Amino acid sequence: MKPVFDDALNLAERDFSTTRVVVFCGESGSGKSSAIRFVMHRHPHFQGDADVRVIEELRSWFDLGALLSALWRGRRVLVASHLPIWLHQCLGALARTQVIALDHHPEKISRWLSAHNVAYSDAAVAAFYRRFGANYTDALLILRHSEAVSFDQALGRFFRHCRIEHAQMPSGLPVLTMPVSQAEAHYQTLNDTGGKHVPG
Length: 200
Known about the structure:
The protein is α/β, with parallel strands linked by helices. 40% of the residues lie in helices and 14% in strands. The chain is built from 8 helices and 5 strands; from the N terminus they run E-H-E-H-E-H-E-H-H-H-H-E-H. The protein has helices spanning 32-42, 64-72, 85-91, 107-115, 122-132, 136-145, 151-161, 180-192, and strands at residues 21-25, 52-58, 76-81, 97-101, 176-179. A 5-stranded mixed sheet has the order 4-1-3-2-5, sandwiched between helices. The protein is globular. 34% of the residues are buried. Residues 196-200 have low confidence and may be disordered.
């Protein structure tokens, strides 16, 4: 299943004209990096802005230094974060911020399944969402694990025979703060090498 961005949350219609920080919050596989690529290339309030910085990705409170440093330098920032939504909302006191939670929209999974011609029921998507959130990676794992003809069948078999364990997010890893051109090269490398980039 080729990674294709679906603007399920209508990012293209959002008003970022006075926004300095856009934070995409969610687990790995929820589409944070894809959303950042879409905004930095295709949103009129960010595309072509050489002062934009991309931060990949905040995993612990200590990583907030990268965001504060970018703000201190007067940058506009697109952020991928695993930190709590409320924390970024509090930091909005320092700069006009929009926080977008990518885990909380099950319609993303419905649209993704439809785009890949996978049959599903709303009940199956709801059951998946309750267990995994709106996570493309987990949905892809479930489909690849089974040769079922529908998402309902694949999910049922997965629930009976398998489980997904999410490792605790490691801390102490470097936080990347990149200009747009460098960020695009970073994302392209992930795509070319089969890295963490997934549909989103």
